[in-house]
Structure formats: structure tokens, C-alpha cells
Design brief:
- By secondary structure, this protein is α+β, with helices and mostly antiparallel strands.
- It folds into two domains: 1-46 and 262-375, 60s Ribosomal Protein L30, Chain: A; 72-260, no CATH class.
- It is 57% helix and 7% strand.
- The chain contains seven helices and five strands, in the order αβααααβαβαββ.
- The protein has a five-stranded mixed sheet, covered by helices on one side.
- It is flat and about 85 Å long.
Length: 375
Amino acid sequence: MKTKRTWSAIAGVALLLAGCEFTDDALIPSLTGDDPAGGERIAIPPGASEGNQLPTLGANTFEPGGVTAGQPTGTEVGRRVDRLRDDLGRLQTSVSNDNSELQTLRQQTISDARRYQDLMADIQSRLQVGTTPGNPTVVAAWTESQTTLDRIADSVGQMNALSNKVANDSALSAFILESVRATYGLTGAVDEDHRQLAVLEDEVNRTVVLIDRLLNELNEDVARQTNYVSRERADLTVMSVAVKNGELFGSSLSNRAFGNAAPIRGAGNTVGNLGNRRPLVVIRFDRPNVPYQEPLFTAVREALNRRPGAVFDVVSIVPQRGTPAQVALNANQARRNAEQVVQNLTQMGLPSDRLSLSSTSSGTAVNNEVRIYVR
């Protein structure tokens, strides 16, 4: 009874937040140690903690498909369609430039990372066979390694700046889409105006999706690269001590627990019947900026206190309501929500090998949800 009251206290705090739900009934069963039924899970593998590994960056390109030219109709609606078409053209030019900058940053990062790993391998080989303490040649290689790693770290700042620019493009694309849809309600249009408007709406929708994918992959690159630099700085610090003493120690112990962020996959996969499993946490995204981080941290911390070896399944729940287009948009948003939850958990210090990400649909859910289950 005392245990149940403890979990109830946590649930009471969480229920003050409209978008989060932590139920006493849901917390206890998920920590019983039973082997709950579940479907296929997509694991997020841990990052390498030993050896030389290049940062894992995305490989996709994001080039807009262009804007279809229209014919003047002489109506005010037609002139508005022309202006919106010009707006879309400028937006796509900006997205194309963003894509070019991203590809350049990726190529430079991989080039610098390869140079860095070559230098580190040379230092390790010299230390492996033994060398004099503070060998000037090894010290020079270590200094160049640090400079090269600094260049990789600088690219993180450039990617963050690019991410802000892409976020602005995303806001502009949403505004253009709303303007296109509002134009349907204007009077004085001819059939040709609406035909051209429908073509334009399709192209704006495709651009919105393209920008969304660009922003997601860019943020994943930033997360992976940040973790890569953090891990390598720890190793470089240990290596400096090894160079000073003339003998090889190994990689930083901190890297044995926390590896780099692996690609987040699992959107579109189902996890079977969840009816036999009770979630530790249910986050309902019924409004923007749901403040779930603090209660999520509290619940996960308590779960780890009870079961230190716990593994967490993060499942996005997609409502099966509305038109097929609305369901598709819900699925995309639910995936982003779940990815953000995973990112928050890793930022809280939860190792990535303790997490899996998957998704499923629900005919009863009203809003997009993310549920966290304990195994």
C-alpha cells in the first residue's frame, strides 16, 4: 500500500499537466518484471564505445521539384495565385540553398573526421609499441587531432544555424499553404483559377513535407555530431595523458555507458497488440509545447530506481480519425513527437541502448500520444 501511495503521488503531480498522464494503475504493472506481450520492436543500437568510428550522418538530399507555370486568367483570384506561386518559388530556392549547405557541411565533416581518426590511429600505434614520454612527434599529432576535432565541433554550430534557417522556411511554408487554402474561398474566380490553385496546393504540400524531412534529418545530424564530438573529446583528454606518459591507456570510461545517437527508426512499424501492456507514461499532445519533460524524468528515474536494468519502449500512437490525408499528417506528427521524447530521454542521460522506438495506430485515441513502456 505504501508503494502504491508513492506512485500515486507521482501521478498526482503529472496530472497537473494537461498533456501528460501518469496513472497509478499504469505505473505499477509495468514494473512487475513480467514479460509483456509485444510485437516487432525497432531497437536503437548503442554507439560504439571502443575503437575509431566516423560520425553517422544522413545521406539524403532535399531538392524541391519546382513550381508549375500558370496562365493569366485576368481575375483578382488569378493574380493572387500568381503571387503565391512566386512566393513558393522563392521558398523553394531557399530550400535548395539549405540543401546545398547541408551537403557541403556533411562532406567537410566526414573529411575532417577521417583525418582525425587517421591521426588518432597513428598516435595509438606509436603508443602501442611504446615511445618516450612527451615524444614531440606524438605531441604534434595530438595537437593536430585537437585542431581537427575543433573544426568538426565548429560544423555543429553551422548546422544549428542552418537548422534555425530551415525552421523559418518551415514557418513560411505553413503560411503559404494556409494562404492557398484561404484563396479557395474568394469570390470572382473562374474554373481555371481553381485548377491552378489545386496544382499549387499540391506543390506547396510537397514542399512542406520536404522541409519537414530536411529539418528532422538536420536535427538528427546535429545530435549525432554533438555526441560524436563529446565522446572523442573525452578520448582525446585520456590520450593526452597517455602521450605525456608514453603508454596507451584506452578510451574514456564515460564512453562505455553513453555512446553516440544512432539513427532513429521505427515510424510506420506496428508493435502488435498493446492491450496486454500497461504504460509507464502516457503523453497526450493535445496542444502545442506540452510540458512533459519534468514528470517524464521523474517517472523514468523512479522506474530505474526500482529496476536498474530497465529498458524503455517508446511508442507513438496515431489516431485513426479523419480523412486519409489527416491520418497521414497525424502519423508524421506522432513520429516527430516520439523522436523528440527519445531525444529528451537521451539528453537526460538515459543510454540509447536502453531505448526502442516504434509506432502503432488507435481507433480510440483522440490526439497524438506517446506511450513509454518498461521491460
